[in-house]
Amino acid sequence: MRSKLYWFLSKFDGLIRRNYSDRLRVLAYHKVPDERAFEEQIIYLKSHYNIISIPELKRHIYDKADLPKNPLLITFDDGDISVIEKGLPILKKHSIESCLFIITGLINTSNDVWISSVEQKEMKNGKSYQDARKVVSLFKSMSNRDRVVKMRDYPEVDKQQLNTDDLKKLQKNGMYIGNHTHTHPMLDKCSSQEIMKEMNSSKQVFDELELPGYNIFAYPNGNADDNTNKTLIDANIDFIFLFDHKINPAVLDHHNISRIRVDSDNKLAEFKAKVSGLHPLMFNLKNNN
User: Domain 2-107+167-286 adopts which CATH fold?
Assistant: First the structure.
């Protein structure tokens, strides 16, 4: 049923794309588990959109340079190892630039993000994956201070992470490295002091690795609010990316850049419906956003 819905919606992607040809679309990926599906998506994007880079976006904001018709930016959150192992070869093959938002506290480690620690312990204790995800949602809803205390009962999970050489390789091959905090907290559950601590820690890593993208930021989990945005701006963050599943307005606000949620293994019909903006429009109408 779901696949039929996406097939139907995908038939309108050309009409929606033409109606919103002056709007920036930013795609938010995470992992790249399926190279074939991902390459199919990239080929589709190349033939229907003009894929831009972070430097081009900067020139648009700072120098008022025009963006091309149907501009689109590709981003990845978290820094999963599959991005360099499976995603980069495809992007390089098709000469596509993109942006990767890294959790700086995981670089050069073998630790997974805290969410995996919760999932794995809860499933080890007999919960289904769905029930383990409910515990994760509970953790995301509590104050950062309370979450940190709770996490003392959850051992870290091993996972291969990107290292310094990986980041240099990604950057050399057209993937801009941006900021996704130091420990992936829910920033709207953090105090201003906790947010500044996160930003200071991530900036230290960016400076040590001589990466310029500290001030290009994406919210973990998309948890954003006005007070958090103000604190980020005070921390010298210039570009703030959301996770709200929307197309951007005609006049872009670089402190509130909307992104469309996609997965690299989405079937092409589903992917078309999402990227066009039709699925995001229906999603946000349904959720009164």
Answer: TIM Barrel (3.20.20)
